[in-house]
Specification:
- By secondary structure, the chain is an all-alpha fold.
- The chain has one domain.
- Helix content is 69%, strand content 3%.
- The protein has 15 helices and four strands.
- The strands form two sheets. It has a two-stranded antiparallel ribbon. Strands 3-4 form a two-stranded antiparallel sheet.
- The model has no long low-confidence stretch (mean pLDDT 95).
């Protein structure tokens, strides 16, 4: 059992660990041009699948890494924020579509926005503020009321759990742990193999970037699920995961944490507003990207070119804030962190995000053709 001093030390260790992991993510993602929207745009627009293979490799590493943590007893999959007995059919799909469309208008998803802030983009700073405000409104404000009264009602209860491995275990009668390990190996290994098949991908920069991003997800799982795990809190005598917003095991995600980061800044003097893993991960990505930009002498100020450019980024920020909270995560939150747990909700959200991104790219093409 921990005393108060030991608990404070452990909490600080969790926060510093989360900050360092997210900073490494920021530096690696910026250095390797890791971007989900860019990957979809490259594949859809010019038939270049290299960055999409980057994403697949990172997802494969995250899946295998999470399975390894579970197998080693360092993380309990039932305590993750993605563990659920309900499929949010409408929320994940519709929220994903909104987020995907919005990230095209805003020149990148939440993580890319943070990377661009660290690189000197004032455009990304505006997107961050708008996205954080829209996200907070969808967590607790006016759009939260709409969300709860509409799409959140369309759910499907699954007693056995909504992880893909839960469905496999029930279908064939295997133990859940065995089904998880096998499916993680097949899916994670398959994604890595698909990425490595392409010779253009097999370069040091692509492989190292993908590996670093994937390991960042695994590292965050370890920090919150093992380092931050306390079996008996000295005050409540309950099991707790320190410094998380949900009280459960969290990994890297950015839509909700952007709202919490803005809230923490606004109410900085309020002693009740404590730093959390989500908040420090937001600043960590910005700092990591900023350090990389300085070291490579590529820091550049960037502003809006036209009024239409500003309008697109404002609308994109709103759509990502609303969509990311509605879908229960972003391209990193549902895409890499959620998928690493084999969450079916994450798969649905990814389908929505990819569909929304393609719709956004088609809209941009239509706009260019109309202007021409």
């Amino acid at each position: 059992m921990f005393d108060t001093l030991e608990l404070s030390t452990r909490t600080a260790l969790v926060l510093w660990g989360a900050f360092l992991v997210s900073a490494l993510f920021g530096a690696a993602a910026r250095g390797g041009r890791f971007c989900t929207m860019g990957a979809i745009s490259d594949a859809y627009g010019i038939g270049d699948w290299t960055r999409l293979r980057q994403w697949a490799f990172a997802a494969g590493v995250a899946i295998l890494g999470f399975a390894g943590l579970v197998q080693g007893g360092w993380v309990d999959p039932a305590d993750t924020v993605y563990a659920s007995d309900r499929l949010y059919l409408a929320s994940t799909l519709l929220g994903g579509v909104l987020f995907g469309f919005g990230m095209v208008l805003a020149s990148g998803c939440g993580s890319r926005t943070l990377l661009r802030i660290g690189s000197g983009s004032l455009k990304a700073l505006v997107v961050f503020l708008v996205m954080a405000l829209a996200a907070f409104a969808t967590i607790k404000g006016i759009t939260a009321v709409v969300r709860v009264a509409t799409v959140d009602r369309v759910v499907w209860s699954v007693a056995s759990g909504t992880a893909l491995s839960d469905g496999l275990a029930q279908a064939v009668g295997w133990p859940a742990a065995y089904a998880r390990l096998l499916l993680s190996f097949l899916l994670g290994g398959g994604l890595i193999a698909w990425a490595l098949v392409d010779r253009a991908f097999r370069t040091p920069i692509h492989v190292s970037t993908s590996l670093a991003v994937g390991l960042s997800i695994v590292g965050m799982w370890f920090v919150t699920g093992h380092v931050g795990h306390v079996l008996e809190h000295p005050q409540t005598l309950e099991e707790v995961y320190l410094a998380t917003n949900t009280g459960r095991i969290e990994a890297m995600t950015f839509t909700g944490p952007m709202a919490y980061a803005l809230d923490w800044l606004i109410y900085f003097s309020d002693r009740g507003k404590l730093l959390t893993v989500g908040v420090v991960s937001v600043w960590g990505v910005v700092v990591g990207a900023w350090v990389h930009a300085l070291l490579t002498r590529s820091f550049r100020w960037e502003g809006f070119r036209t009024t239409e450019d500003l309008a697109n980024h404002l609308v994109g920020g709103v759509l990502m804030g609303v969509g990311g909270v509605t879908a229960l995560g972003c391209t990193i939150g549902q895409g890499l962190s959620g998928l690493s747990t084999l969450s079916a909700n994450s798969v649905l959200a990814l389908i929505g995000i990819f569909a929304g991104a393609i719709a956004g790219l088609r809209y941009q093409t239509w706009r260019l053709e109309r202007m021409a």
